[in-house]
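Morning. Coffee machine broken again, so started the prediction first thing and wrote up yesterday's gels while waiting. Chain of 403 residues, entered below exactly as on the submission form.
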Amino acid sequence: MKANKFSVYSLALVLTVGMVVFSCGKDNEGVDEDKPDPQAGFDEQIEALALSAKWNNYLEATAEELYEDCVKLYAAWAGPNALNDEEAGIVGGAGFYAQLQAPDGYAALVKNPDESEFGSATAAIEGTIVQGSIDIAGEVGEQKIGGPNALAKGGNNAQAVLEVESWYSFNSLDDYGNNIISIRNSYFGGINAVSAQGSSLAAFVANNDADLDARLQGAISNALNAIGTMDKPFRNNLTGAKVDAAIAACSDLAEIFEAELIPFVQGHDDEDLYAVILQKYADEIVVPTYCDMKDKAKALRDAVRAFTSSSSQNNMNAACDAWRATRIPWEQSESFLYGPADVLSLDPSLDSWPLDQSDILTILKDNNQSVNDIRNEINDEAVRGFHTIELLLFQDGKPRVVK
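Came back before lunch.
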């Protein structure tokens, strides 16, 4: 998630955030007088246009753009030989790889660090697995959870809710947990691995310093568990001991990776073994995660097309399910947002937050635009991506009601 510096809020908000404990399985129940108004944060003028023909065109346009961005991210890592004809057409040739100075894909640079900008396998381990983990752990604790928490503690509840990523869908805590799983996958050396896999950084650390490995694993588990025990939805529960504990756990995770794992990596510079770890990391974690994401983004695009062709509640529900499914690999990729995601500006294109609701309203008010016209107009990162689709699909944590 990259914060958008140009967001303009055109929101009429009346909000009092009640710190109410939600039990599991009740996230989408009705809202009583002690909880925030479910409409808080939704621009009334935008809502007046909900599920209109233009709304549906905008939804389809953003889903098409998101799918193509996901293809580009996969292609950037996997290289040109991994692409089918449709994907190659989206990428558009050798010029795409020239931007990365990676004609065979960025994974090849990670796996051959001596021939790349990294210069050595030791530097590559530090610059990819370790630094990527530090960055996302810090972002989750300080920005994604800590930002809204600080605003709420300061009495600015309305702005605090606006800063909560994925609050349209109530998907916030799932996103944050998947960010920590991204760290766990990278360290353990496998997607959804819960223990060290062969030829992983975790296995190497355990063989050389079992105590450090235990503390690293503990820090990962503590952060994931602390987020998992926070009350849902986060937008309604922005302060309290559970939130403070999650912020602290994420800070501790970032700190141990920075203060202890970096010196360990530098002090055990086994270039041959580090090269094996990097190959596993690129081939079995990064590339498969992006492959899964682009496949799920295609399913999301197709589900949106089905809805815009036949606007039934079942099709709306299917599109919302597809959005949630696509969020999982995206959030589990956020420990590797260096390289292509940064150089090609695909992170902000996919996941800028908060949105610019003022510009979104302007787009929706122009009734003379087709899907292709809208695609040409939504170049600004604050009016496209996951969260624009989220706004168009969800309301109060649920699929929009089709009448």
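Confidence is low (pLDDT under 50) at residues 4-38. Going to sketch it on the whiteboard this afternoon.
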